[in-house]
């Protein structure tokens, strides 16, 4: 889906001689006013297209991109079950579901849903209200997307918008601008301060915080260049002292109100 399928083609080329690499992909997003399509026809057609681009006979973890209010969940799950029964998919996941939507899908599925791909970072902790509690109860792992807060947690926007950044483009500016507010600036400052004190990079700190959160199984990185990818890969083993975790928890804390999970704690 991303870059008109070129991202899958690149992964397929890179992994052509790496059959043991586990691959995750997803389907269900469309470029129409509808925005999402989790119908049986669309999902299975998209799956076959992904397999062709990836040069694979199967996808290890296949996510439904978003809840589709126009398609009964039974139809969506039927398509996913067919994909597994046909051997084209090993395991099923969902993406961008609310807590009740995740529960509805998990309880109605013939096969376990093992992954929920959700945005999660120091700048976006909304899934802690209901999705993470639901995932824990259901035994579903969280695959955190945008753990660097859409790139803002790298610190590159602290003093303005770099001309070569995604925020400077018409296509991505609306995606990143919501995280360039006063609250985000305070969190980014805290991340950069922690990084300086620990001899780490802001990327190290941001990824270490997200990776250590309960129920998080993995993180999805959207590097734009090879250089960015190398920096991220060098950060995978970074760890934070407990007091730094606590400080970052505090500065990035979200408001909880009735009946959010933990509202009265």
Automatic annotation (TrEMBL):
One Gene Ontology cellular component: cytosol
Cross-referenced InterPro entries: AKR_Detox_Biosynth, NAD(P)_OxRdtase_dom_sf, NADP_OxRdtase_dom
Domain NADP-dependent oxidoreductase, first and last residues per copy: 1-252
PANTHER family: NADH-SPECIFIC METHYLGLYOXAL REDUCTASE-RELATED (PTHR43364), OXIDOREDUCTASE (PTHR43364:SF18)
Full protein name: Unannotated protein
Organism of derivation: freshwater metagenome
């Amino acid at each position: 889906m991303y870059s008109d399928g070129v991202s899958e083609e690149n992964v397929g080329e890179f992994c052509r001689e790496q059959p043991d690499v586990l691959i995750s992909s997803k389907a269900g997003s469309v470029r129409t006013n509808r925005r999402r399509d989790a119908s049986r026809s669309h999902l299975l057609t998209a799956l076959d297209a992904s397999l062709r681009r990836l040069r694979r006979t199967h996808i290890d973890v296949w996510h439904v991109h978003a809840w589709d209010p126009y398609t009964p969940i039974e139809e969506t799950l039927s398509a996913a079950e067919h994909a597994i029964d046909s051997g084209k998919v090993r395991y099923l996941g969902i993406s961008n579901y609310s807590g009740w939507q995740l529960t509805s899908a998990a309880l109605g599925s013939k096969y376990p849903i093992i992954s929920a791909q959700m945005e999660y970072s120091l700048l976006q902790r909304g899934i802690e209200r209901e999705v993470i509690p639901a995932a824990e109860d259901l035994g579903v792992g969280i695959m955190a997307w945008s753990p660097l807060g859409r790139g803002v947690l790298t610190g590159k926007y602290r003093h303005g918008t770099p001309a070569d950044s995604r925020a400077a483009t018409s296509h991505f500016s609306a995606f990143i601008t919501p995280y360039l507010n006063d609250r985000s600036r305070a969190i980014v400052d805290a991340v950069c301060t922690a990084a300086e004190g620990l001899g780490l990079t802001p990327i190290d700190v941001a990824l270490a915080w997200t990776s250590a959160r309960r129920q998080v199984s993995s993180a999805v990185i959207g590097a734009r260049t090879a250089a960015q990818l190398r920096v991220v890969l060098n950060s995978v083993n970074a760890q934070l002292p407990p007091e730094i975790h606590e400080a970052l928890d505090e500065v990035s804390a979200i408001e909880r109100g009735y009946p959010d999970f933990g509202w009265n704690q």
